[in-house]
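Need tokens for this chain, all 175 residues.
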Amino acid sequence: MKLRINYIDNGKLKILGMRRTVDAAQTVFANFIVKSRDLDSNLITQLKDIELTFVICGKKKIRSLNRDYLTKDYVTDVLSFPVNDSLVKTHRKKTRLFAMADLGDIYICKERAKVQAKRFAISEKSEIIHLLVHGFLHLVGFDHERSKSDELLMEKNEAALVDEMSKRLRGELKK
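Here are the structure tokens for all 175 residues:
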């Protein structure tokens, strides 16, 4: 199974080293999909290629998306727009995916990431990695707002994926 992330920014918001970060995310996310016990393995075996789009945007864009699609008129840090039904075993409807699956889109607001990075005393890139992982988990069907147990499961997976991404980017993990 191969996972591809289409990375888009508007040219003004470029972040140094994002291509390398996206490459690491492709490997980490693909490994997670294949190995996770929380995802529907019968469905995963049908998938040959998986794709998602990751967009770095500004406050204006994320606010308009939040307002137009979620009826929340404010700037947020990350939005995920899943294309398919949940891949999480306990929340799946019995639908079938094609051999090539588009998971959906993740939008991250660069300005919010920068403010949050300062507040958490981490680098902007580290915050963007955290938001990218958070968005990815929503795309595959995890939801921290559904229940307390779902929140804990998502937090556990989020921490593990952020840790693996960080190690991979520091060169501690190979393919």
